[in-house]
């Protein structure tokens, strides 16, 4: 690229050449023929380059829980960038990193009191799985290597995450994945659960499948079970009443570690800091990302119980205890953004707000029942999902059109997976805006009938 053409490419006021960027999890050719471009954002809205406001029904990608471009977060990032742009976390530390870890540990239930930082949900999951394996090694039970995930689970896109995950398309193209992984059954059954609000009554017994897996492999070979308390990316599957408690009991019975992947459910999405609190179930590790700093700077992490952390703190004091980490673990900008975000969550009581709004949200989302092609609606916390009937021989086409028309014609951003529309607005959403989002989604559903 010549100096002149690179200057032209940096000029964002001119129409972009869309060729070079290969977009993730995107129908690239379709996007490039009819782009959905976003130029800026504020509070509950995105704005297109032409200045059209699009209400955010998805908190970006389940992450902007405090709303967009909050002045306090912007200021904190700017200040940090001017003060300490980068600091290595291998053998060095900085104040914002320690303050952020302490702040997150305070929010976590029970004795989950140490935080390992990384930069995304995928890295958080792979980190948690590695800590589980290494933990059993340092405990002298290195035979515990098997990892148990769940069908329809989404744990990001690292090899660990897709191995324990259960979304077929995310696995089928990528070879043999990790060995020694097994899966629990997913918890969705439309015949038993359709149009449930919150946790469905039916399905706690599905946790008992862990007994079958233990009987098959023997507990002495199993390191950990990982589940999302609420499966998000597969289309919003709230846990059946009693299911997570049962999973905890069975893990305790066999000494198996339980990991909650709270990359979506963390930071208020279900009306509590973590879903673990909502369900009164204390896992051994919690993975987080997204909402930790409202999606502003890439950040993820794993919160671990004291006993797990302490098991590593043996041997010579100058020896590395865990051979794992990332160049950007605890990046100063991500930490500054996280601290400012956590202040907003606390000062504006956004987790409590999500809890208070849950019934209003549920009423609104469930009002879409009866619209054409609506097969099921689920709601929990400030999350909702609408399953649409697939078009013949074109699974996903109806929801794709809904997402596209929602953005272009009805000024609403939504998330889709298969033929499911998923909604998860920023936690600052007002009751009027809930009405507006659902009204727009209703219009879109009619438009794609
Ligand atoms: C439960 C869960 N785990 C992991 C991830 C992966 O996060 P990331 O895209 O930041 O790698 C996601 C993303 O949606 C998620 O929902």
UniProtKB/TrEMBL annotation:
InterPro entries: Aminotrans_3 (IPR005814), Aminotrans_3_PPA_site (IPR049704), PyrdxlP-dep_Trfase (IPR015424), PyrdxlP-dep_Trfase_major (IPR015421), PyrdxlP-dep_Trfase_small (IPR015422). One of its GO terms (cellular component) is cytosol. GO terms for molecular function: pyridoxal phosphate binding; transaminase activity. Keywords: Aminotransferase, Pyridoxal phosphate, Pyruvate, Transferase. It holds the Pfam family Aminotran_3. Its cofactor is pyridoxal 5'-phosphate. The keyword Transit peptide does not apply. Belongs to the class-III pyridoxal-phosphate-dependent aminotransferase family. This is Beta-alanine--pyruvate transaminase. The lineage of its organism: Bacteria, Pseudomonadati, Pseudomonadota, Alphaproteobacteria, Hyphomicrobiales.
């Amino acid at each position: 690229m010549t100096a002149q053409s690179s200057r032209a490419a940096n000029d964002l006021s001119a129409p972009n050449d869309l060729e070079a960027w290969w977009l993730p999890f995107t129908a690239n050719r379709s996007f490039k023929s009819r782009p959905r471009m976003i130029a800026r954002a504020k509070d509950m809205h995105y704005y297109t380059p032409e200045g059209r406001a699009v209400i955010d029904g998805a908190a970006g990608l389940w992450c902007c829980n405090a709303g967009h471009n909050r002045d306090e977060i912007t200021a904190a990032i700017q200040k940090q960038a001017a003060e300490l742009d980068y600091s290595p976390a291998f053998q060095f530390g900085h104040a914002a990193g320690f303050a952020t870890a302490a702040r997150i540990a305070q929010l976590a239930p029970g004795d989950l009191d140490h935080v390992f930082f990384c930069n995304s949900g995928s890295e958080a999951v792979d980190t948690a799985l590695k800590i589980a394996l290494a933990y059993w090694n340092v405990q002298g039970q290195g035979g515990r290597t098997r990892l148990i995930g769940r069908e329809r689970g989404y744990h990001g896109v690292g090899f660990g995450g897709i191995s324990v995950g259960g979304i077929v398309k995310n696995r089928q193209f990528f070879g043999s994945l990790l060995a020694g992984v097994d899966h629990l059954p997913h918890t969705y059954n439309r015949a038993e659960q359709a149009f449930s609000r919150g946790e469905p009554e039916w399905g706690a017994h599905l946790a008992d499948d862990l007994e079958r897996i233990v009987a098959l492999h023997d507990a002495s070979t199993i390191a950990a079970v990982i589940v999302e308390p609420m499966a998000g990316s597969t289309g919003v599957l709230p846990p059946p009443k009693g299911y997570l408690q049962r999973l905890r009991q069975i893990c305790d019975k066999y000494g198996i570690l339980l990991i909650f992947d709270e990359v979506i459910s963390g930071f208020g999405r279900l009306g509590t800091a973590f879903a673990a609190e909502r369900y009164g179930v204390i896992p051994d590790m919690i993975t987080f990302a997204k909402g930790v700093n409202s999606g502003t700077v890439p950040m993820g992490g794993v919160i671990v119980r004291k006993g797990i952390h302490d098991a590593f703190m043996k041997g010579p004091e100058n020896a590395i205890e865990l051979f794992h980490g990332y160049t950007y673990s605890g990046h100063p900008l991500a930490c500054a953004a996280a601290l400012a975000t956590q202040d907003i969550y606390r000062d504006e009581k956004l987790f409590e707000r999500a809890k208070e709004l849950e019934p209003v949200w549920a009423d609104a989302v469930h009002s879409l029942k009866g619209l054409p092609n609506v097969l099921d609606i689920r709601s929990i916390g400030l999350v909702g999902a609408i399953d649409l009937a697939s078009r013949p021989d074109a699974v996903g086409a109806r929801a794709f059109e809904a997402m596209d028309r929602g953005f272009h014609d009805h000024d609403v951003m939504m998330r889709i997976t298969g033929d499911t529309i998923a909604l998860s607005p920023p936690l600052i959403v007002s009751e009027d805006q809930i009405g507006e989002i659902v009204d727009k989604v209703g219009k879109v559903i009619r438009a794609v009938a």
